[in-house]
Each structure stands twice: as C-alpha cells, then as structure tokens.
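[job 0417] fold request received: Pimeloyl-ACP methyl ester carboxylesterase
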Amino acid sequence: MSERTDILLPDGARLHAELSGPADARVTVVLLHGWCLDRRTWRHQAQTLDGLGLRAPRVIAYDARGHGRSSATRRSSATLDQLGDDLAEVLRRLAPAGPVVLAGHSMGGMTIMEYAHRHSAEFADRVAGLLLVSTTAEGHTHTRYGLPDPVAGLMRMGETFGAGVLARSGVWRPHRAVLPALAPALRWLLFGDRCAEDDLSLTLRSVGRTSLRSIGGFRESIGTQQRLDTLAKLGNMPAAVLVGDRDRLTPPACAESITAALPSAELYVLAGAGHMLPLERPEEVSDALVSIIRRVYRGVGGNTRAAGLERGRLAA
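[job 0417] inference complete; emitting structure tokens
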C-alpha cells in the first residue's frame, strides 16, 4: 500500500511524493518523471516493484516543482539546477540512509545528471545504480523532431519563442477544453508506432496539471544542459540507458553519447518506440530497472530479501 507525503523545501516550494514498498528495504528506488509530466508516468514500474513482495525495494516517486500535485515554481527556479537541488533534498528527507537507485525519464534523467554535478560527494556516497530513459546529456544538440534540419531549425525557433511567452504566463494551467486539440500533436511528438488510448490520456492529463510557467520556464535549461563530463566521472555502477528508435525529442544519438560517457551502462534501443518508454514499453523498462536493483542487492550483501530478489524474473 502506498503512502503520500509533502515536502516543504527551503525556498517555500512544496513537493508531493508517493512512497511504497517496505520501509526497512535495504535499497531505495527514486523515480523521476519528464518535463510537463508527473510521477504517474512510472505507474507500471512502481506496480512491478511493489509486486516483488518481500523482495521489493522502497520506492519514492514525486512530482517535480511546477508539475503534478506539487506547488508552482517561481520563474527563476524553473531550472535543472534547482531540480538537482530538489532531488538532493528529497533524498535527505525521505531516504537518508542506504544505497539508492535513481531512474529518470527525459527531464528526470537530466535532473539526475544535475544532482551528480552539483552534489558529487553525496551522489558518490549514496547512488548505487542508474536507469536513464529517453533522455540526453547534451541539451537539444541532437533534437530534430524527426524532421529535415531546415524544418527542425524553424520548429526549434518557434518552440523557443513560445516557451518564452509561456514562462511569463504565471501559474495558470492549460484549460481542460484545449487538451483534446493537443492530442494529435502530442501523439506524433511523443509516441512511436503504438500508442494506447489510456497512455495518451494520461499524458494529456499530466500536461494539463503543469503550469504554463513550468511548460515554458524549464525549456531554456533543458535545451542548454551539457553533462557528458559529469557522467564520465561517475565511475563503475550498474546502469542502463533506454531509447526508442522513433524518439523525436531524444533520439538514439543522445543515448549513444550517454553510454559512451558512462562505460558501465548498457544501451537498449527499442524498435518502433518513441519518447514515452515507461508507458509505451513498460515491460522492457521494468525489466531493466529490476535487473539493476538485483545487481545493487548483490553489492549490499546477502539477506533474505536479496536472496529472494536473485530468484525473481529478469529479462534485461
């Protein structure tokens, strides 16, 4: 059974978190969602981990500031720097001890990289495994939206201008009546060959919970982040990088450069999949995450929970 809590950050922002799994688990998994989404993106993976029973880790899934059920963010705080600091605070409050596995989708993966950059000693001391899904360490370097370069350049200019306007639009959220009109564009931009109606509906509802300030404000930071050097310093740990070969936002080139910088990482390119892998390909993402957790348990020593996990289903 899950429990919910709110964390009040030093700057007054409030983060909403959902916790599940045994409170005494020796490993904690933190799930970080993408831009304009919320913690529900990871619902399939959270269910899989909870289903491990006595083998389950502690699971923390939270909404980033300005997203989901968390409070709005100031425009000056709509940055990856701030999200990295927020992650550090979440760990201090909700998982103050023991090894941690961090799993990040899209902006969530970039948040992990920022945490590693800004809190390197804490990262080295706490983080024992990484799952990076549909993300990038090079901003929008490789983003072409699946379009020819000249068209992609024009689209980026329009997106950047629109983001600037939205960033100044305050804490208002997209009107519910507008969301159905966005469905075809989001279906094309975010999903691959297959898109379940329920997954698209969840994505639309997540966008509808995101403030206009957050939709626009985080764009600059996301587009300019460069953290390959940070990844190269992380050392050897269980890690996996997943990407869809139809991803229009963070294409395979993004995952390839991450894997090259993080030698311990295994790369998985999923045919026909787009950007929303935790929803599109839940089994593959869950299997990769459980595989990392299994390897982390090996490192923390044997006990009944670890022994049980070793016997669990794994396909990575």
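[job 0417] notes: Residues 232 and 262 are 5 Å apart (CA to CA). Residues 149-167 form the longest helix (19 residues).
[job 0417] exit 0
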